[in-house]
Amino acid sequence: MRIPLANLLVRNPLPKVGDLMTEVIRTSDRVEKLIELLEKGDQAGVERVAKEISAMEGKADDAKNAARSKMSVRLFMPVDRRDVLKLISQIDAIADCAEDVGVLLTIRPLTVPEGMKPVLNLFVERVLETIREAAKLVDLIDDLVESGFAGPPAEQVLEQAAILGRALATWPITPRT
Questions:
Q1: What element of type H or E holds 5?
Q2: 99 within 8 A of 33, measured Cβ to Cβ
Q3: Type and span of the H or E element at 44
Q4: Domain of 141: which CATH number?
Q5: Which pLDDT does position 10 carry in this prediction?
Q6: Is 140 a residue whose pLDDT tops 90?
Q7: 66: Cβ–Cβ under 8 A, 6 or more apart, which residues?
Q8: 68 in a domain, yes or no?
Q9: Which of 6, 61, 68, 177 has its CA 20 to 30 A from that of 122?
Q10: Residue 125, helix vs strand vs coil
C-alpha cells in the first residue's frame, strides 16, 4: 500500500485545543461567583454553583477527549505529540482545580473572615487573569504553526508568553501599587 507523502505531514497538531480552552475558561470563571457566595455565607448558593462547575468540568473533559482523539498520529508533526498531550492535560487541569475548589467548599460550611476577603478576591482575580492570558497564548498557536514557527506570529507568541510570565510572576499574591 502506498502512502502519499502529504498524508504523513500534519499542518496543525492542535485541532481542538482552542475548544478545550474555551470550556476551561467558562468553568474557571464560575469560581468568582462561588467565592462571592461563600463570602456572603450563602451555603446553598455555594452548593448550587459547585454543581454547575462540576457539570462544566465534565464538558471540559469531553473537549479534552475530543482534542486527544482528533490529534493526528501521523509521522511528521511540527511539534512532538507528547508535548501536545501534555499541553492538553495541563489545560484540563485548570478545570479540574475549579471543580476541586467547588467540592472543597461544599464539604462543610465555611465563613470568610472580613480581613481575608480582599486577599481572597485578589487571589481569585489574579488566577483568572492568568488563565485568560494563557487562553490568549493558546489562541495564537494556529497562526504560529501555519507560519512555520517564524515571522510575526512567532513574535506575537513570544510577546504573549512574556505577558503570561509576568502574570505568573505576581505569585505569591502581592497587592498592586
A1: helix 5-8
A2: no
A3: helix 43-70
A4: 1.20.58.220
A5: 47
A6: no
A7: 16, 19, 20
A8: yes
A9: 61
A10: helix
